[in-house]
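Take a record:
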Amino acid sequence: MDRKPAGRVPGLLGRLLLLILACSACRPAPDTEPARLVPEVTVVRFEGRKLEKFPTAGQQLTWTLSLQREPDRQAAGLRYILHRFRNNRLVCGRADLELAYLALGPDYRQASPSRCQQALALFGKVVRRYGDLPPVAARGLWYQGWLLTDLLHRPAAGFDLMQDLVRRFPDTPLDNLQPGFRESQAISALRDEEVLPADKKIRWSDLALLFIVERQTDRQRQLAALAQLLRREPSARVAGPAILHCLRHPSVPGTLLDTARHFLDRPQVDDLLRREITRQLQRLEQADPHAEDRS
C-alpha cells in the first residue's frame, strides 16, 4: 500500500487503520484465474486523457480507483464519473471524496499547510453536498477530523468532528472501495452493489472513537472515549486496539484491567491481539500486584 491516511498511528492500531481506512491505496488483485474471453474495451478521451469506459457507475469507479499510480489520469477519471453519471449521487459522492484526497498531493506526509487546507475545504463541501448519504458523509467527516488533528495540528477541532460523526452517523458501516479489479474479468457480469461492498461489522463511528482514544492526550477524556466506544459493543477489531492502547499508558484504573480481562474471553479475538493484551496485563500485574484494586 502506498497511500494511507493514518498520521501518527503506532503498532497494532496503526496496522488496523492502515488496513481498513486507505481510500484507494491497495493494488488490484493479481489475475490467478484461467484466461477467458474479454469483451472489447471501449476507450474515451476526457480532459485530454484516455480512459476505459464501463456500462455502470460502480464499475467505472472501480476501474478508476485502480489508477493510483497515475494520479493525474485518476483525477480525470473521477471527474469523468461526475460528468457521465451525475445522477448517481452515491458513486459521485465517492468520486468527490477521492478528488478531495488527491488535493493532498502524492504523499500526505509531505503536504503543505495550504494543500491540507484545500483538502479540508473539499471534504467539507462533500459532507455538505452529500449529507443525506451516510456512506459518503461519514467518510468525509472522518477525513476532516484526521486532517485537522494530524496534519493541521488542531486536535480539539478534529475531535469535535469525530464526535459529530458519532452523533450523526452512529450505525453507518465502513464501505470497502477496494474490490480488486481484474482486467481479465468480464466486467459486464458485475453488478454495482458487488463493486462497492460494505463491512457491516465495523462502523465509521467506532473508528472515530478509536481515533480519539489513540490521539487524546488528556487521560480522563481518553478513558471517557474508550468507555463510549465499548458501550457501543464494537467489533473486536476496533475494541481490542483501543483497550490495548489505554493499557500501555499510565495510569491504568482497575476497571480497565477488568475490561481487558473480559475482552480476552471473546472467542473472536485475533491471536496477535490476544497475546499483546495478555502481555500488557502481565506487565501491569508484575509491576503492581494490587493493580486490580486501583480505581
